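Lab manual, section 2.4: Encoding a predicted structure.

Procedure: take the sequence of the chain (342 residues), apply the prediction step described in section 2.3, and record the output as structure tokens. A sample record is shown.
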Amino acid sequence: MRRLTRTVATAALATALALVSACSSGSDADDAKGGDSKTLEKVTYLTSFGQFGRDSYAWVAKEKGFFKDAGFDVEIKAGQGTGGVIQTVVGGQADFGPIDLTGGLLQVGNGQAKDFTVVAAIQQRTMAGIASVEGKNIASPKDLEGKKLADTPGSVVRNLFPTYARLAGVDASKVTWVNGEAQNLIGTLAGGQVDGIGQFVVGQPTIEAVAKKKAVMLPYSNVMQDLYGNVLITSSKIAKEKPEMVKRFTAALLKGLEYSLANSKEAADILKKNVDATVVASAAAELELMAAYVRSGNTGTAIGTLDSGRVAKSIAILQGAGALKQNITPEQIIDFSLAPKA
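Recorded output:
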């Protein structure tokens, strides 16, 4: 009888342990699907151009947990301008990155790039321009003739310059361009090796901090007012095969952008934490200047929206200036179904 009792007790204990184990496994499975310990999808993100305040929103999205909440473990790397970002994303070495939309149109319209898809706007107006400093005798576009300018070969500033020059009355053949790296351009200008550099206009505070001189900015938007600024891209393969993943990533990144504009000093501190060379005051000032380019009444109030009509106008401007070798449409490079709605 005692033996039978022990046998029954042992069987009951084994059953109880099995139930506990099953419950525990079920809990783990639930966590893996969507709990706090869920497996995060690894994503590589490129900045638009170096590691400046204007791109700090990606680090903010990571630091504040926006990427993690969306299911991503994001590695952020420094981009080298529109051409470099397109090449890296299309080549599969990165999943997302911002490019200047006009630069993207130029690349596609001239057969230099394909297989990337635009999924959101970062800035509603182009921030591209030429930057110089006092003492270089540059005050207007015409003053660029006879001067030496530096930029990365794939930069939108450099690739769009012939169109800008034509519309601004500048003889582009009288302007000399030399190659430079994104992180070294401002130092090259400050050191006097060149008269000007390709630069987003929000770079003014950083230029003045490094050069210790007043910056002179020639924004392209003064002569080309319908052009968008940076847009977020991914490969056409990812856009087609993982549309919901693209939407989640875009929403998290834009949340970081919105937070950064509202908290520029905190965003600059977060950038400093990740990029030691950051000058906090300059990075914060860049974000404050950028706010006017991100928020625009032209396409509604929602950050990230894209308007097909405005993009068509941009294409028409480039075609009118003879900058495109082939006709293109907005839908060739933008998936409006993935972009935020106005």
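Check your result against the sample. DSSP finds 13 helices and twelve strands in the chain.
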